[in-house]
Amino acid sequence: MSKCRYCDFNSYAWTGQELDRYVRALLREAELRAEALHPQTVFIGGGTPTFLPADLLAELLVELSRITGFRSTAHEVTIEANPESFDEPRAQAAAQGGVNRVSLGVQSLRPEVLRAYDRVHSGERALEALARARELFTRFSADLIFAFPGQDPASWEADLRAVLASKPGHVSCYELSYEPGTALTRLRNAGRWKAEDSDLCEELYLRTGKILAEHVYERYETSNFARPGERCLHNLAAWRNLHYVGVGAGAASWHGGARRKNIERPEAYQAAVESGIDPVGECERPDANTALFDHLMMGLRLVGEGVSRARVRAATGLDPVDHFANQWQAMREDGWVEWDAHYLRTTARGALLLDSVLTRLLPGEPV
Amino acid sequence: MSRRFPPERIRNFSIIAHIDHGKSTLADRFLEVTGAVDTRKKQDQMLDSMDLERERGITIKAAAVSLTHTIRGEEYLLNLIDTPGHVDFAYEVEKSLQACEGALLLIDAAQGIQAQTVANAMLAMEQDMEVVPVFNKMDLPHARPEEIKDELENTLLLERDSALACSAKTGEGIDGILEAVVDRMPAPEGSPDKPLRALIFDAKYDEYRGIIVYLRMIDGTLKKGDWVHMVGADTDYEAIEIGKFMPKPVPHEELSVGEAGYLISNIKQLEDVRVGDTITIMRGERAAALEGYREAQPMVWCGIYPTNSGDFENLRSALKALKLNDSAIVFDPESSDALGFGFRCGFLGLLHMEIVQERLERESGLDIVQTAPTVPYEVQMNDGSTLVIHSPGELPDPTQWSEIREPIVTVHIIVPTDSIGVIMKLCTDRRGIFLRQEHLSATRVMLTWDMPLSEIIYDFYDKLKSGTKGYGTMNFEEPRFDAANLVKLRILVNSKEADELSVICHNDSCQRRGRAVLQKLQKEIPRHQFQIPLQAAVGGKIVARENIRALSKNVTAKCYGGDITRKRKLLEKQKEGKKRMKSIGNVEVPQKAFLAVLSTDE
Ligand SMILES: Nc1nc2c(ncn2[C@@H]2O[C@H](COP(=O)(O)OP(=O)(O)OP(=O)(O)O)[C@@H](O)[C@H]2O)c(=O)[nH]1
Ligand SMILES: [Mg+2]
Does residue A355 sit at the B interface (CB-CB below 8 Å)? Predict the structure, then answer.
């Protein structure tokens, strides 16, 4: 998998042999941690699994299914793909292996932007890949990144419209972020790349929402938009703070009362798995208060739906509205949140100020 | 080691120079050739023992060390003080010189005589000390000793043949310098038969050992266990331990005439130790007080506040402990609406201010907020009295006074002849008055100007450096106060006046300054849920205005890849940042914003 500049997801340079070894390790971890898991959704992502050769990808899916039994239980099996590697054989391998949804990392259609991100595909290749996804899979998503410094709002809008023309059921629009340790962050710190521009972010964020609404996409999460029936079930589960098991280097899990993250570096990850050791990197067991906060932090991103009070009570023993009664009261007066007996959610204004909403819930002076 | 040296076998000297001319490196060579340090343990600039000095590569504190060295078969005790070169620390140099009979005036053989070379040489000559000029960095290919000899004659009126040459880097010429110290500098003059008389030339607080007093013996002998009397403080203490710095402290049984060393006692009150005070014997005939040190005159003032209001008393103790080691600091309690209780502190310059702030934080572990520095002003009150103010907030209502006087300093600037034009313009733009121009050599001149201190204290030095490709240097003397058309620039944040942010500036530049301050605040103050108007006013007249737009979005639409723990931590960090903010009315202001006034960007 090639390295790209904007993201710090596990992406390292690999040779064919190394890929093989990595897949073995991943499957071995699945045997240890996900045997007969019978998941309802599967998401093959984090880095770019379509860099695997088609036969290795096919093998991975067959083996994963054998271990977890997902083919008989999962309604949604998504694979993340990059336009440059999402070719016919791989697409076929994925479809035959049970994948029924593709999340395509288009990022941008502009060569200058793609270059800055170190992406090797071109705008045309991305549109071709979208067409292929449309042919082979009923459900697919186009994933875009916006708000790189100096981005012209008009060109962003044109890109977005061009992508919408290939009629994806789902669109993710993420703001460019500078993750520690990535090339982009180093460029910025060295003064060779402009810093974040919050005004531009805001303008593009609002514009994006407007255009997608025109095309009848609902913003169901801060950065995610879907046509009716096209929401990503896997991600919905994560925002609802339901459990999941992640396998692979750097993969996150939320399972059995623990949030954990695997060892990041593939070499160390593989070494651990190969010697029969659980490749856990960091692990945390949130107490009830932390778990409650996590429910809110994740759930309030679901713009229309909000947080289910009953689900949170069942999971933590605490009611999300009663627990922060004073804070919610004040925020309702500010016009940021609303609730009824079943759900707590942000208003349109509160959705934009979610960081303020959440920090008000953290211990310390009211601000 | 603890053999006794008669005064004629003792030399006390300082190394003085312009910044970076190699004083501390030369001291390293002295430590080496005299065997004071094990060659295996050596490092560069060994006497720069403070972390801050090592990090910044400059000397901040003068450091004393005792060496023994044999010359022509005779063993000598050489007490050396390595001094700082930066202009802000001239007071350290002055104090060090008073504990010595001679000075090595180090001159970078490539750079030649610079502003602090002149200033420090003058300090030594005023005290009628033996000054031995030494050209350093002779290993550099562009060393130009002949030309510098001209400068030596023209500027300092020192004989061209009096100069020695060395390379502190290669060690070339080091023995010759030590010989000159012995041959050309006088031995200390005191008498062993007179009552004990010693000068406290420095002090510091040590966590384990308590207060350590640095002293230079003038007359008599000090023995371990003696009871001593501090004349100025009028207190008595037992000399529990005495010794010399070699360079680590080494206990001795006695210190006698001309020697330099330290004294440890169970001194409880930090105030009992005053640098410049005289030590004599408690019982029997007491010696008269020495002249001591003149008080330092602070050039810049700023407010220092604890981030946590509960730390006020801790900050007071920390300042007291630091003052023991840096007698140039002045501080008095003050309070502010936004910042609570703190201190108004005076410093010798901006670098001094920065160093004190860093030392305070490091040595006491306190978190502090600092307001923008200002120079002092004299206010002519209607009732005929004169009020000296150290912060713009102290300026009384304009109806109560008739005149404000600002500090004016005579500045000496040494530059290459080809950059005279640029520097003349710079000085004129900063309201300077040209006094004279003198040629030091064929290629370098010294320009002398009268300039308002407020115009040179912030970024003037940087401008001077960039206008002369790094070759320009400057020095200035103590200020006098002259009347000027000055006004108080008031800053209003969301209609609330913030005294902590106000500035005194020249009437002609109030609009420009006002705009610069507001633009800086606009960058520093985060957007709030409401719009925040920012205004700069002189009296009731608004001279500049800006706006901080209301915050309408802060949700992060970024992709975190399922790392919930990290996302939560980021929010907690945001909250932490907010807690550290101070408020002006209902506006949360980060601590950095209180320095906004510093922005002089045109
Ligand atoms: N080439 C060369 N470099 C030298 C020589 N002496 C000192 N230096 C270098 O000059 C720089 C400054 O040396 P310091 O000894 O720290 O100078 P200083 O005069 O003590 O500086 P301050 O205490 O900050 O005023 C260092 O990088 C030294 O390595 C020398 O003889 N030759
Ligand atoms: Mg030094």
Answer: yes
